[in-house]
Specification:
Length: 223
């Protein structure tokens, strides 16, 4: 199992609400005014929408307002949901559009048009100090034995470390790794939501994952 898969599993383990395997059936219940279905949807996604909104706005109060607007848009727009994407992706797209607008209005967020150029900055996935002048490893990646990633990621302090590392990533890397590895969206969905190219998404994700792995390596070495 890969590091991203483990990260997603560790974080999603905190969600107590069951996933809805049949979006069409859920939408049908929601359109019928099933209050329990809507409450279950809110319980499952509200905290995750707050986390996603905070990628675009700088404070929780703004994020809460964006999420409330998103739920209203979900309710009013359900009849237009055609199932071309998953219900979760549709909700995340609504949230992202509103959060971008709010962030730009408040002038508190990084314009997402800049994300496509973020990988051009002097930002290395792996520190150059870990290589010799000939390009070989001077400090190769840590090999996990008994302390496997699976075991580490089940520990509270390791999940906290991942949270802290993600929070400290540049905006583009943070957004991509949150959508891909935390929320489990595929590359096409992430690109559509963030309005970036597949190439940029891949570079940002690689750098984010490399930094998370480096943080885990350092954590293991200190134990």
């Amino acid at each position: 199992m890969s590091l991203p898969e483990l990260s997603a599993r560790a974080r999603h383990g905190a969600d107590s609400s069951p996933a809805y395997p049949d979006d069409a059936a859920l939408v049908k219940r929601l359109l019928a005014g099933d209050e329990a279905a809507f409450n279950g949807l809110v319980e499952q996604y509200h905290g995750r929408l707050i986390r996603l909104a905070l990628l675009f706005v700088s404070d929780r109060a703004s994020a809460e307002e964006v999420v409330q607007d998103t739920w209203l848009a979900v309710l009013t727009g359900l009849r237009s949901f055609e199932g071309r994407s998953g219900l979760k992706t549709w909700i995340f797209s609504i949230l992202t559009n509103r959060a971008k607008t709010r962030g730009q209005r408040d002038k508190r967020s990084v314009p997402f048009s800049a994300l496509s150029n973020e990988h051009a900055q002097d930002d290395h996935a792996v520190s150059p100090s870990r290589f010799t002048p000939t390009g070989n490893w001077s400090a190769p990646p840590e090999q996990w034995d008994e302390d496997t990633p699976e075991r580490l990621l089940l520990r509270h302090e390791t999940r906290a470390l991942i949270d802290h590392t993600i929070a400290g990533l540049p905006p583009g890397q943070r957004a991509v790794v949150t959508l891909r590895d935390v929320e489990g969206l595929d590359s096409t969905e992430a690109c559509n939501i963030l309005e970036i190219s597949e190439t940029n998404q891949r570079v940002l994700l690689h750098r984010a994952r490399a930094k998370i792995r480096t943080a885990l390596e350092q954590h293991v070495q200190k134990r």
